[in-house]
Amino acid sequence: MQAAGGAVVQRNPSDEVPDLDEEVVKKLNEALARDDKDKALKIILDALVAKDKDAFDPAYLEGGKLYAKGGGDSNAGLGPNFKTWLEGELAKGPEEIKSDSKACRKYLDTLEIPKGLPDIRINIAEARFISAPRLYSVVRHEFIHYAQFRKDPLRYISRYDFPKGYANPSTDSQGAINEVEAHVWEAENMEQTGIDKDPQYLWNTFENLNDYYGEINVGEADHLTQPFKDARNKLWKAAVSGYCDQGDPLLEKATAGTIVEDEQKKLDEVWRYIQNMWGYRAYRNQKDVTALEPRVAKYEAHYQRLAEQKAKEEAKKEAEAFGGKIKTAEARLDKAANKVDAYNSMTSLLPAWRKLDADGKTEHEAAYTALTIRIWNTTWEYSLTDIEAAYEAKEERKVRWIFNEFMIDLFNNGKDLAIPQAELDAKEEVLDAWRKKLRGMD
Known about the structure:
The protein is mainly α. The chain contains 16 helices and 3 strands. It is elongated. The relative contact order is 0.05.
């Protein structure tokens, strides 16, 4: 680092934020510990000004400072002095700039920015004061916007900053270009800001970068194509690696059976992020994917074992519950006074049987088979008695209802049950006889 006059100044870079000196980061962390946001921002601004007075000139900042704000989104915008000047200039313009954005753009291009403008307001959201690397990286992100405003403050002005009553020519695509440039800077400089060790921040940056790049109109930012791809690959690799670094010690504990509840929750959270990020691997550098595959495979194998274990436990519960359902069905059948009650004993049992795994079916097969045959025969006998009575009474609709809804249904179910084939053949002869009777009722 060189001071004015060319003298070399020795630096003592921080391990946490290598772009800043150790003493600066120490003071920054002290301010963060006290929740003194204004002091933390001043420390960073002073360090940046000392680094490069022109690039971070506070004379172009509203109030000569950075501002803390609530919420989770930081932003940079044009200050009140610039807005007042712009509103005055627009008032001098032609009437068409109130409704025609192209005419407004043409008029803006004729304006000359006064010396000392723009004044730029940088707001840093309270959610970014979690750590020195996060805070520093987001401040540098907003200073990319600061540089964009200083270079051409009229190129993009948000709808919040543009004076009301005029057709703002700024496009969402240009706003997205500005954001991509800022996010690319964060990716390219992650080692210097210290966020390379913060996978959650890296992943959020990755997702934001993807979203903003998708909002750029085709052909408007070809110069960003390769930087975007490089930044996206770098963010993805660092985020996956970072989460693996966080999770590996916990995974070892989980494998050894020594993990505690809070650690398991953290491991589960890490795995959710890894799964999400791993879904993007088809679009990443194949060398990076290949290098990370063994690390991710350990998590996949672990959670596959957990899923299989959980499935076995659920199957065991289902099997235990099925024994009770058999007793309930037997009790209902004993009390059944008609075909409906008898039939319902079986229909409530069938879904539970189908949910059992192979071990559960083996355990209960004998009892289930005996009961279903008993239910099947009891329902058939009730149905046969009822259909004969309805036929004698010439109640055609009831005869057809019993035949179709009970006897045919029972017969078809019997094919899935352990009903002896000889008995099924005998029942089919009975059905054929009733088909003839039904035709005679037509």
